[in-house]
Amino acid sequence: MDDSNNLLPISLKKKFSKAAFIPKIPHFWSNWSMRSAWMMLAGLFLILFSAWVWFFCRIEPENGMIAILIRKTGDPLPAHQILAEKPGQKGIQLAVLPEGRYFRNPYTWSWRLSRITDIPAGKLGVMVRLYGQDPPAGNIIAGDGQKGIVADVLRPGKYRINPYANTVQLVDAVNIRPGHVGVVVSLVGQDIFQNTAITASGDEFLVTDLQKGTQNRVLDPGTYYLNPFIVNVVEVNLQSQRFEMSGIDAISFLTQDGFDVRVEGTIEFNIIRQEAARLTHRVGDIEDIVQKIILPRARGYSRIEGSKKRAVDFIVGESRQQFENNLEKHLHQTCQVWGIAINSVLIRNIIPPDEIAAVIRDREIAVQEARKYNQQIQQSKSKAELVRQEMLAKQNSARVAADTQKLKAVIEARQRMAVDLVGAERELEVAKIDQQAAEAKAGAIVVEAQAEKDVVHMQNLAEAEVLTERAKAFGGGDNLARYAFQTRLAPRIDTILTSDQPQGLGRSILMTPAKPAGEVKK
Fold it and tell me: Is the CB of residue 84 less than 8 Å from the CB of residue 100?
């Protein structure tokens, strides 16, 4: 039976079982053509399918990117949902695709590319969840499955976060500098008026970790990544502070005798670490501490103590130092309970009223001078008595010393005489030896001088003989002298402007040597 009939539908086979419309095809040609066609169709389909998959189904997030999947088919989302939280739901999917290569059916899926969340150094990320149940009224921090601010923060780094599910807000990390501490103020928790049973801190101004308010703990210097919607950190300076009591901050008070005295000085203090949280919560910052605690107590003590003394007492050095010491002691005791350590109190200037300052100062100077003179009189009397006693002691000592000195002088004279005698004999022997050595040395010097005289005489004779022979060779001493003169002068002459006359300047150069002795003129 012909295989080509199998390609027709059954209804046509029944109707045209022996119809002449279908030509008969050779068996060999029919098998080859059908197989090739199917192979070509399969290859073409494979190529088209691969191209369709590559260009339309490929998801390839680059480095630093993520892919957000959106499902087109599936169960619709409830009215309150914005993300597909369960498998098979339509809409934006919670999970994201990191860097890589993925393939999804574009009929079922669509996608969008987004950058990953990058938290730089020194920053932190606060995540706000956009999906889930609404949090209870009064809660600002979202719990599990709730919308709102997430308690956990993102430290510096890179995170693959779905921007349709969570938004990230960058804030600065808490940096506590050296010499400072951080006071932690909790922004969430139970209100202290709602549940008074939670009082583990034991302080009416501070709260526990479960309550809202200033906590009874501080942060040491360093960097902390804390959620600013949960806690607020206030940096408190523990270093030594200087407060100048001058100008409007100077202390003024009335003395016992009704004069107005003005005190200027410096108070050095610092906050105690253990009391930093309570102090800042009760009082405030450094300026508040000065104006509300230190300065009022200094003024109060000064006015109370100043009213007990006269104006003159604050000009005298002793009273002034005592006032300064008592003020420092008072401030130390009263500020210690608040958590403030007073390091020093220095009174630089106490200004009395102008109308009495000069009078009091002069009177005090006179009193001091009288006191000084009385002391000098007493010292003079004591010194005179001491001199008298010393003179008596010296007389007794001199008498004993004279007797002792006399005895010592006799003994020393005898000893010195014996020593001098031995020394004189020794010096005599040494002198004799020195005389002999001097005589020998003098003889050697005479011999050496005679030898040097002979050498000089021989050298002079030799030089005279050489000069005599040279003079003979030149025909006389004048010729030798003229030769030496011209030899020295000629190399140093560049130009001579003169004539050839005998009386000219060139006479000394152009003059001919003298004739040898004995030559007769023709």
Answer: no
Indicate if the pLDDT at residue 182 is higher than 90.
yes
Q: At what angle do helices 354-474 and 477-489 cross, to 10 degrees?
A: 130
Which DSSP helix (H) or strand (E) runs through 211?
none
Q: Residue 18: is its pLDDT beyond 50?
A: no
Least confident residue range of 172-186, 254-268, 290-304? 254-268
141 and 92 Cβ atoms separated by less than 8 Å? no
The region, left, alpha or beta by phi > 0 then psi within -120 to 50, assigned to residue 255 is beta
Alpha-carbon gap, residue 45 to 434, rounded angstroms: 141
Binning pLDDT at 50, 70 and 90, where does residue 75 land?
A: confident
C-alpha span between 122 and 225 (Å, rounded): 9
pLDDT of residue 342: 92
Residue 36 in tokens: 């090739």
- The beta strand positions in 278-432, using DSSP E, are 340-351
φ, ψ of residue 137 in degrees (nearest 5): -60, 135
Q: Is the pLDDT of residue 114 over 80?
A: yes
Is pTM beyond 0.85? Reply is no
CA 384, 386, 391: angle at the middle one, nearest 5? 95
3-state DSSP percent of the chain in helix, strand and coil, to 5: 45, 25, 30
DSSP string computed for 81-150: -SSB-STTB-EEEEEEE-SS-EE--TTTEEEEEEEPEEE-TTEEEEEEE-SSBPPPTT--B--TTB-EEE
